[in-house]
Amino acid sequence: MSATRPIEDGIVRDFKVNLSYGEYLHLDEILHAQHPVSAPEHHDELLFILQHQTSELWLKLIIHELRAVLAHLAKDELKPALKGLARVKHIQRTLTEQWSVLATLTPTEYAQFRSFLGTSSGFQSYQYRAVEFLLGNKDRRMLQIFDDQPAARELLADLLGTPSVYDEFLRYLARHGHPVPPPILERDVTQAWEFHPGLVPLFRDIYEQAEQHWEAYETCEELVDLEENFQLWRFRHLKTVERTIGFKRGTGGSSGVAFLRAALDLTFFPELYAVRTEIGVPR
Q1: Is 251 annotated in some ligand binding site?
Q2: Can you tell me which residues bind substrate (predicted)?
C-alpha cells in the first residue's frame, strides 16, 4: 500500500492557456484581502477578519437568492421560490455555526487588538441591512450611514422601494383567491412591516385547511423557519459578543450587548406567529 497516489495522465497541467482553479476563483485577490491593522500584528486578528469576510460572502449569496425568490413569487413560480428559501436556510445555519469559531477568541486575546479597529463595526454592514430590507425590516435612516459608499447606498435605496419577500408572498396569496385586505396590497413598501390583525384569519384558514392550501401552507412554514434561523443567528451573535467583551460599548458607538438584545424583539412575519395562538381554538 502506498501513501501517495499517481497523478492520472488526463489531469490538466498546463495553465498557460487553460483556466485554472485559482484564476476562476480569483484566489490571489481573496487570499490577499486580509490586512491586519494591529501593531505589532496580533495572531488572532486574522481569525477576526476572516470570520467577518466569510460572513459577508454568505450574505452576498443570501441577497442573490432572496432577489430571485422575489422574482419567482411575482411570476407565481412558487416551487423555485421555495427552493431559494430552502437554500437561504442552509446558508443561515452555516452563518450561525460560524459564531462558534469566533467564540474561541478570549477576552484577553481580543483586547490586544480591539483598539486598532477604530470605529469600524458590523453595524455598518450594508449587506446585512440589505437582507433585513428584503425581509421587510426597512429603515430609511440607514441610507445616510452609507453616504460615503455610493454603491451600497444605491443598493439599499433600491431595496427600500422594492416589495419585501413577505409583500410578494401576500400578493401571491391574493392572486390565488385568499382574502388579503386591499390596504395591505397597496401599502407603502418603503415602510417597515407592521402587524396587521386582518391577516391572522387568512393564515388560520391556510393552517387549518392545509390539505386544500398545501403550497401556501408550506411557504408559511418556510418563512417561519427563515425567521427562526435569523433569530438564532442574532442570539449567537449576542452571546459571542457578551463572552468576548462583556458589556462594553461597541466599536461603532452602540451600547453593545444591550443593542443586540433589543434586536431579538424584531420580527419579520408577526402574523405567522400570532396565528399559532388561534389554531385549534373554537371560533
Answers
A1: yes
A2: 110, 114, 251
pLDDT digits (tens, 9 = 90+) for 256-276: 888 889 888 889 999 999 999
**Cα 265 off chain centre by:** 17
Among residues 203, 54, 66, the alpha carbon closest in space to that of 136 is found at 66
pTM for the structure as a whole: 0.95
C-alpha cell at 67: 432577489
| Residue 171 is assigned to a ligand binding site | no
114 is in an annotated binding site: yes
Least Cα distance to 67 among 54, 52, 85, 49 occurs for 85
Return the exposure string of 21-39: e unless at least 16 CB atoms fall within 10 Å of the residue's CB, then b: eeeeeeeeeeeeeeebebe
Return contacts of 94-100, CB within 8 angstroms, 24+ apart.
Answer: 94/58, 95/55, 95/58, 95/59, 95/233, 96/229, 96/232, 96/233, 96/236, 98/51, 98/54, 98/55, 99/233, 99/236, 99/237, 99/239, 99/240, 100/236
Question: How many CA atoms, within 13 angstroms, populate the side-chain half-sphere of residue 197?
Answer: 2
